[in-house]
Amino acid sequence: MGNRRAREFAKKQADEASKLADEAEWNRVQYEPRPYQPEFHVRGLGLRRLQLVEQPSFEEAAVFELRQVDDDWRLYRSRFVELSDMVLGYQRLELDSRTLRAMFARVTSLTLPLMPFLINSGGADGTLFELAVFGDLHSEWRFRWWSDSPPQWKPLVDAADEMLEAFSGTGTWSTAIARRRRTAKACCYIWDEFDV
What we know:
Elements: H1 2-31, E1 34-35, E2 47-56, E3 62-69, E4 72-80, E5 86-93, H2 97-108, E6 121-124, E7 127-134, E8 140-145, H3 154-168, H4 176-182, E9 189-192
Antiparallel strand pairs: 1-5, 2-3, 2-7, 3-4, 4-5, 6-9, 7-8
């Protein structure tokens, strides 16, 4: 009987320690700036499956993540700390689980050339986008483009734009986002190698 009580007590202490560690990690994620690309783990948060980044030059930037908990899909948003690649917070947004799963399925079923832009040019004052997908066993990929994307990536860029449009309808993201996206090309400056 004494051994059983000792085991129960040890298990209770281990569970409490684990719960405290999860709470500490959640607080760190919420209130301390962190790099946006590395994964973090909090019990019950689920597996990160998709990350979509939108970084405009002169407006608030954000990272959206789709997470999977068994058959449930969830959407979260972090905001960039001004003038850095660090993010803060992890706010859950309300969007139907089936919709999020369909978004993931659409992106992961695409077939497109991997060739990036090779035009000896740079740019300024536009919006930087990234779309990353995460599988199991460390399998993942990431695409990154500026306001003008490589034409061969159009199916991926269209999917990203539609996701951002859906995310803007959650009521917690700026309604100016769609207007900015429509006018993004008007505010960009492209220079070629002779201008540098």
